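Many introductory courses stop at the sequence. We go one step further.
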Amino acid sequence: MPKFYVYITDRLHEDQNFGLSHERVFTEIYDAESKADVKELVLKDFDYMPKVREKMTSKVPAGERFITSIHELNDYWYDIWLTPHKCRECLNAYTKIEKAKFRMGGSPEFCSSECQKQYNIRFEATTVDSYNTATVYMIIHKPSGKKYIGVTTRWLMQRWWEHIKAQSGSPFHQLIQASSITDFTFEVLEVFKPSEHDPYEREAIYIKQYDAVELGLNSVGGHNKEVAN
C-alpha cells in the first residue's frame, strides 16, 4: 500500500516577533490507497479543520486557516523520513518523521533540541575528534558504595571540579554537595583515542557493566544528561 507524507500549515499563526506567519502544525505519514483516502484520514486526526484544502484561492473563506500538503513517498523520501537514526546524546533511536510529528527540533544528529543542548553544554559544542584522548572514569561514594560513570575529553581534574561546582539538581550532584570531598574516590577505567572508539558507546558499556543506573548514581544508561559543565 502506498505511503503518503502529509503536513498542515497554519497560515494565520500569530508570532510574537513577526505577527502573522505560516507555521507547520501537523505532520504524519499515512498508508492509503489514494489521496482521497488520505484526506479522510487527515480529517479524522485533525478534526477541527472543516475540510482539506491543498492550496489557497480567492474562494477560500478568510477564517479558514489551514493548508494541507500531501505527497506520495518514493523510495528516496521513504528512506529520508523512516530510516532509524541513533541520537548522538541519549543514544535512543528516532526517525525524522517522529521529530517532525512531535516538533522536537535539533540538528539531524540528535533526536531533539534538548539533547543537542545537553550535548553542547557538556562538550562545549566541540566534537570529540578534535581531542587526542578520551577517558572513561568512575566516581565512588565510599559511604554508600554507589558509583557514577562518566566520559570526558578534557583534563580529569577539571572534570572533577566541574562536578563539584555543578548545580544541575541531579541526585549525583546533590550527593556531592551534601558530602565531603574525602567521601569520594575517582578512578580511571579506560583511556583511548576518540578516533578509534566512540566515547559515548564506551561510557554506556561501563554504565551497564557496573549497573550504575539501577544501583548507582547515573540517571540514564549512556551519555548522562544530568552532567553540567
